[in-house]
Amino acid sequence: MELKVLFADQFTVAAASIGGVCEAEAFIADGESSYESSREGLVVLLDRVASSGLQALSSKHYHKANTNDRYTVYEFIKGDLRLFFFKGSGGVLIVCTTGVIKKGQRADKRAVSEAVELQKNYLMAVQNGNIKWIDAEES
Question: Which residues of the chain carry a pLDDT beneath 50?
Answer without folding.
Answer: 139
